[in-house]
Amino acid sequence: MPSPARKKLAGTLFVVLLLAAAGSAVYAFFHPGPWIVPEEAKRVVNPLKPSQANLPAARALYLDKCTECHGDAGKGDGSQAKMYDPRPTNFTDAARMNAVSDGELFYKISEGHRPMPGFKKRYTEQQRWQLVLFLRSLTQSERK
Asked: What is the mean pLDDT of residues 30-39?
């Protein structure tokens, strides 16, 4: 049977480890670092095509959850955009959007990255793919 001193030492060690883990979680929350997307996620192809059904449905999703940061037109200028560093993505920037795959956008929408929440539990897979189509349409509409 362990001595009281050993029990106290084990308890103290447990508390120290718990505090260290909590400190790491708090640091990660406020300082998330770069947004790393797995290579296999980048290679995933959008199963949906732009259509009369997909784009309006996705626009409604975007207007509901994305505009306060990314703005109505997707320029990263929403009402809360100034609160964040880095600023929300400008989806009308063709060079930036052409540099990311549909799979990468889908991953980012699904998983989130502080301060952006993930939408895997809020939106179905189809809805998240519709959002990818909608984000692509913002770049195309800016070119016109």
From this structure: 79
99, amino acid identity: A
**CA dist., res. 120 & res. 40, Å (int):** 17
Q: Which two tokens stand for residue 126?
A: 């189809």
Phi-psi sector, 112: left (phi>0), alpha (psi -120 to 50), beta: left
H or E element at residue 22: helix 4-30
How many other CB atoms are there within 10 angstroms of residue 77's CB atom? 16
What's residue 114's pLDDT? 86
> Any idea where the domains of the chain sit in the sequence?
1-31, 39-143
Q: What is the distance between the alpha carbons of residues 33 and 140, in angstroms, rounded to a whole number?
A: 30
Please name the CATH architecture into which domain 39-143 falls.
Orthogonal Bundle (1.10)
Identify the helix (H) or strand (E) that includes residue 107. Answer: helix 102-111
pLDDT band with cut points at 50, 70 and 90 for residue 53:
confident
* Interatomic CA distance for residues 101 and 127, integer angstroms: 17
